Amino acid sequence: MIEVNDLTKAYGDTVVLDGLNFAVDSGEIFAVVGPSGAGKSTLAQCINLLERPTSGSVVVNGEDLTRLSYKQLRVARRRIGTVFQSSSLLSRRTAAENIALPLEYLGVTKGEAERRVRELLDRVGLTDRANAYPFQLSGGQRQRVGIARALALRPSVLLSDEATSGLDPQSTSSVVALLRELRDDLNLAIVFITHEMNTVLEIADSVARLDRGSIVESGRLVDLLTDH
Ligand code: ADP
Ligand code: ADP
């Protein structure tokens, strides 16, 4: 599971995140929704440890990741897989080769990497597209490759940073269905950051609404829906 405690991020005098608190259990999809400028990408970068918070902590499976040295951070980062908007795949690599990247960096043997890539392709339903290049895939398929790549190092937390933004409704639904399946089958804690309220309604167990750096409303999706 992942816990965000009193998370604050400021650039000089500009406070971008102002004391955020939430926890996401294994087997739960937690959506963070907010308009442009709310602080969503800054939150994503604090969660996947690309940015250091100004204060507060990000705790994964009981370990405070904000207190680690750079060397420890390289290992700790494997616990969090990230899927980005339009997936950022390498265009000269096939689907299978893109998924293999994190395993290569880690120095996993070729045979073991091939076995894992096959398993991941199967998990995201793209076994028959293994040798396709990104330009030969649909937007939804590219995002599924991005998800498989994010899972390569077996994280316990999956961070989705606008992963369905820009997809057509049908592709969005297929990505949503896959994330829900992964939540259940791998017992992942999923943090789903988006500006799209429609997608939140499809995917989330719990929701926080972020506005100008603060959580202005949060709770179980069913409770929030029946309140209004
Ligand atoms: P969102 O992803 O919700 O659009 P961001 O996290 O990108 O929001 O930005 C939130 C606010 O923080 C914006 O007002 C933005 O201008 C400001 N901001 C983001 N990064 C920086 C930075 N490096 N320096 C100063 N201000 C920043
Ligand atoms: P095992 O411990 O025998 O690998 P699990 O039930 O933990 O069994 O996992 C089932 C399959 O899913 C395994 O093949 C494993 O590689 C894969 N798997 C488990 N957890 C993750 C994860 N967080 N990310 C990606 N793959 C995973």
From TrEMBL:
One cellular component term from this protein's GO annotations in UniProt: plasma membrane
GO biological process: one example: amino acid transport
Domain of life: Bacteria
Domain spans labelled ABC transporter: 2-228
Keyword Nucleotide-binding on entry: yes
Biological role: Part of the ABC transporter FtsEX involved in cellular division. Has ATPase activity.
From-to range in the entire protein, with total length: 1 to 228 of 331
Stretches assigned to coiled coil: none
Family according to the record: Belongs to the ABC transporter superfamily.
Assembly: Homodimer. Forms a membrane-associated complex with FtsX.
Gene Ontology molecular function terms on file: ATP binding; ATP hydrolysis activity
Keyword Hydrolase: no
Keywords, sorted A to Z: Amino-acid transport, ATP-binding, Cell membrane, Membrane, Nucleotide-binding, Translocase, Transport
Protein name: ATP-binding cassette domain-containing protein
